[in-house]
């Protein structure tokens, strides 16, 4: 049957997408609540069905991972594809990031949620998928109170990385993009790790560390790693939390290099390879997360 035969529609959810609308819906046969993501197949006059199929394929690939939103079903109409997704009742972690500090995440919350985010991202990277748009709007919670578990969503910018071909693209959300994207250098799984560093800073302080008055200033702040670790919001934090952020937001860390296999790399490659060390099994994260 069609989507409208199988589901009741409730209301739109606050999703900021140019080509997608997300609506809360209920499956008639089971009474279960889902989020229906309506995606236009033609955007700016171009056929985007292939890109939507890519997003579906990534969601299917990640079905085994509890930290990635679950894809329940897909419907297709003449103009749209409808992805019926698991409903995350707690909404975006963005809400806690911009809340007054008394309603914001506690440091213990961030440790637990960051561990879950890393589990999700590690699963993707293990399957050669880079998300490339990790930000508070794309991390949802199963419940808000009590604080639930995270679900990574929106794979519209995700890419498959392989050793045989390089990807160089300008993409992502300005505040969260890594220096290599701005420099039009190859994208890797380390590109996501940079975004996780920015995400941790925002979750802990409510401050977007590189945000300037305009896009140019933001990009300049990122390429110069113009970031403050003296904000009062950081002063009361566990030193391991700040160390965790510093170890991810690096561009040229020649002086902190502890392994020999990267001696032949250029400074920027060294920086990216340092971020790689955070992949598995999160050894350097132990102090912060556990």
TrEMBL record:
Name the enzyme's class.
Answer: transferase
Instruction: Report the PROSITE patterns cross-referenced here.
Output: PROTEIN_KINASE_DOM, PROTEIN_KINASE_ST
Q: Which SUPFAM superfamilies match?
A: Protein kinase-like (PK-like) (SSF56112)
Q: Which family does it belong to?
A: Belongs to the protein kinase superfamily. CAMK Ser/Thr protein kinase family. DAP kinase subfamily.
Q: Which reaction does it catalyse?
A: L-threonyl-[protein] + ATP = O-phospho-L-threonyl-[protein] + ADP + H(+); L-seryl-[protein] + ATP = O-phospho-L-seryl-[protein] + ADP + H(+)
Record's GO cellular component terms: nucleus
Identify the EC number(s).
2.7.11.1
Q: What is any Pfam family matched here?
A: Pkinase
Instruction: List this protein's GO terms for biological process.
Output: intracellular signal transduction; positive regulation of apoptotic process
Listed InterPro entries: Kinase-like_dom_sf, Prot_kinase_dom, Ser/Thr_kinase_AS
Keywords recorded for this protein, A-Z: ATP-binding, Kinase, Nucleotide-binding, Phosphoprotein, Serine/threonine-protein kinase, Signal, Transferase
- Name of the protein: non-specific serine/threonine protein kinase
Per the record, the domain of life is: Eukaryota
Q: Which GO terms describe its molecular function?
A: ATP binding; protein serine/threonine kinase activity
Domain Protein kinase residues, every copy: 8-272
Endpoints of the signal sequence: 1-20
């Amino acid at each position: 049957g069609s989507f409208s035969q199988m589901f009741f529609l409730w209301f739109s959810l606050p999703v900021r997408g140019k080509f997608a609308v997300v609506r809360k819906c209920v499956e008639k046969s089971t009474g279960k609540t889902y989020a229906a993501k309506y995606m236009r197949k033609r955007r700016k006059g171009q056929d985007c069905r292939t890109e939507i199929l890519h997003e579906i394929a990534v969601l299917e690939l990640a079905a085994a991972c509890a930290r990635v939103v679950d894809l329940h079903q897909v419907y297709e109409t003449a103009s749209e594809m409808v992805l019926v997704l698991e409903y995350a009742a707690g909404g975006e972690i963005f809400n806690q990031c911009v809340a007054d500090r008394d309603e914001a995440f506690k440091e213990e919350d961030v440790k637990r949620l960051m561990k879950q985010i890393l589990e999700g991202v590690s699963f993707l990277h293990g399957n050669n998928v880079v998300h490339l748009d990790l930000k508070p709007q794309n991390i949802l919670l199963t419940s808000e109170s009590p604080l639930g578990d995270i679900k990574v969503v929106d794979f519209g910018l995700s890419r498959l990385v392989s050793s045989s071909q390089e990807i160089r693209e300008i993409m992502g959300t300005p505040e969260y993009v890594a220096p290599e994207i701005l420099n039009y250098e190859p994208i890797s799984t380390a590109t996501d790790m940079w975004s996780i560093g920015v995400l941790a800073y925002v979750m802990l302080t409510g401050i977007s560390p590189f945000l300037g008055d305009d896009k140019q200033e933001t990009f300049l702040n990122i390429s110069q790693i113009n970031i403050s670790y003296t904000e009062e919001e950081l002063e009361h934090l566990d030193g391991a939390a700040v160390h965790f952020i510093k170890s991810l937001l690096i561009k040229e860390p020649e002086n902190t290099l502890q392994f020999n296999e990267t001696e032949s790399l250029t400074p920027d490659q060294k920086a990216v390879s340092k971020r790689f060390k955070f992949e598995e099994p999160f050894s350097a994260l132990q102090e912060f997360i556990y």
